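Side project, low priority. Logging it here so it doesn't get lost.
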Amino acid sequence: MGGCSTRMGIDKAFLDWKGKPLYTNAVKKLLPFCSEVYLSVNALQNEQFSFVDNVVIDSTESDGPIGGIISCHRFLKDTLLFLGCDIPLVSDADVKNLAEIHKNGQGCTVYFNSIRNCYEPMLSIWDPLILDSLDVYFINGGRSLQRFLNENNTHKIPLLNEENFKNINTESDWKSILNTN
């Protein structure tokens, strides 16, 4: 959730989702699958999360989701399950299915949207070795998760439901998602 929320105009992590900040929705969905849940935040957000012990501050500035993934890898050095707070319709079944498919050491397990012809890395599981490769790619100037995943022949897991991966970037996106729920 370390993005700038520029198109939204306000920090998406704190949008009201069923009476709670949006980021808590992602935390709740991850808890059954993780022994610990960390919040990946940018330096400005860190002040707002001073009450949280498990925070990873982006070690890079304005590099989008790849910067957050790299920062978490550098800090935690373990297999990581990511869920972006701005895809609130992702279901428990989506997370469970991904966790059941993932086998340690296989690299990255991620859904693939065949309609949009792209990976959905904001719900993904990454092993340390592929994260090391991602870090090298990043250090060498790579910033596209799509390109990295394609170049590494990442297995394309079919989406259970494309609607669950609607991303919130604008006020219009937010209103659209509120109307579907």
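Brief comment: Helices lie at 22-30, 43-46, 64-76, 92-101, 128-139, 145-151, 171-180.
Revisit when time allows.
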